[in-house]
Design brief:
single chain, about 325 residues, alpha/beta, D-Maltodextrin-Binding Protein, domain 2, six-stranded mixed beta sheet, about 45% helix, SsuA/THI5, Solute-binding_3/MltF_N, ATPase-coupled transmembrane transporter activity
């Protein structure tokens, strides 16, 4: 049975999505042609993840130059804002977690999936203070739990509660972005916190957090590489080059933790011990968009629809490039 309490969540997210999109659209012609006559591919990245590593290594620029493209990098604090820019045509390619694309698709954003990242469920989990009486999922009933609404953590929490027969209505959600949730967690204003690495690792090491479960059995917690649909149709060769270079830089990251850890620690302003924990429990890389992976996405979309968080059914297959 669907409940109605989730609609304000979606309406807030989508209102912000559309407002920012209109602003961004006014600042961009949505054209890949640069003043010097070459093609430009505008890549949106966040301060964590495969595209940050790619940017730091600087390998994709040479590959793209060979086929007549230059690169423009644009930094974003979170996936939803990145997808707003993608919708507005202000960037051409970006990477987010598994849930933001579903919200964007529900808002009819013209995006397409290009590739998937490797599963990283070990770094996502439900945290409680070390001295908390909460020992298992069953103990979360009636508790105040912090997480980012519409995020991969939102989905993880729903599935974890479901596994022990607790409905979403039987907890008190505190919709908080990681920075605010960290403060609330340390001050005891929330009983539990659902989040992803490197925030998970940092809390475990620096805030005496204890993980009661990770994402295993609940979510693969993949990320996805997404493109503006119009750009993807016209410039698929360039996008394919970027994905190839993401894979190469991911292989480098997997094999060179001694260089990767200090590089990420400096950029993210997080201690090396936390970065070490986070990179050692994940594998970087790219997977093709197999039927199994898209079915994972469909289950997330269906879950958010059944909770009335998005207002209509989303078919994730509609956001694939048709060959």
């Amino acid at each position: 049975m669907k409940v109605s309490r989730g609609k304000p969540i979606f309406n807030t997210i989508i209102s912000l999505f559309l407002m920012v999109s209109f602003v961004l659209a006014g600042c961009s012609a949505g054209d890949a042609e640069a003043e010097n006559g070459s093609n430009v591919i505008r890549i949106g990245y966040q301060k964590n993840g495969p595209l940050l590593i790619l940017k730091s290594l600087g390998t994709v620029e040479d590959r793209l130059e060979e086929i007549g493209y230059t690169v423009e990098w644009n930094e974003f604090q979170a996936g939803p804002a990145l997808l707003e820019a993608l919708n507005a045509g202000s960037i051409d390619l970006g990477r987010t977690g598994n849930s933001p694309p579903i919200f964007a698709q529900a808002a009819d954003a013209p995006l397409v999936y290009m590739a998937a990242g490797k599963s990283k469920f070990k770094g996502s989990g439900i945290l409680v203070p070390e001295d908390s009486p909460i020992q298992a999922l069953e103990d979360l009933k009636g508790k105040r739990i912090g997480f980012a609404k519409g995020s991969s953590s939102h989905f993880l929490l729903v599935k974890a509660l479901e596994s022990v027969g607790i409905s979403y209505d039987e907890i008190t959600p505190a919709y908080l972005q990681p920075g605010d949730a960290r403060v609330a967690f340390e001050q005891g204003n929330i009983d539990a916190w659902v989040v992803w690495d490197p925030y998970t690792a940092s809390a475990q090491i620096n805030s005496n957090a204890r993980m009661i479960v990770d994402g295993e059995g609940f979510t693969t917690d993949r990320d996805f590489f997404l493109a503006n649909k119009d750009f993807a149709i016209k410039h698929k060769e360039a996008l394919d080059v970027v994905i190839e270079e993401v894979q190469k830089s991911s292989e480098w990251a997997n094999q060179n933790h001694d260089e990767l850890i200090p590089m990420l620690a400096e950029v993210l302003k997080i201690d090396e011990a936390s970065i070490k924990m986070s990179v050692e429990r994940r594998v970087y890389g790219v997977d093709e968009l197999s039927p199994e992976i898209m079915e994972e996405q469909q289950k997330i979309a269906d879950t958010f629809y059944n909770l009335d968080i998005i207002p209509k059914k989303v078919n994730v297959q509609d956001a694939l490039i048709k060959e």
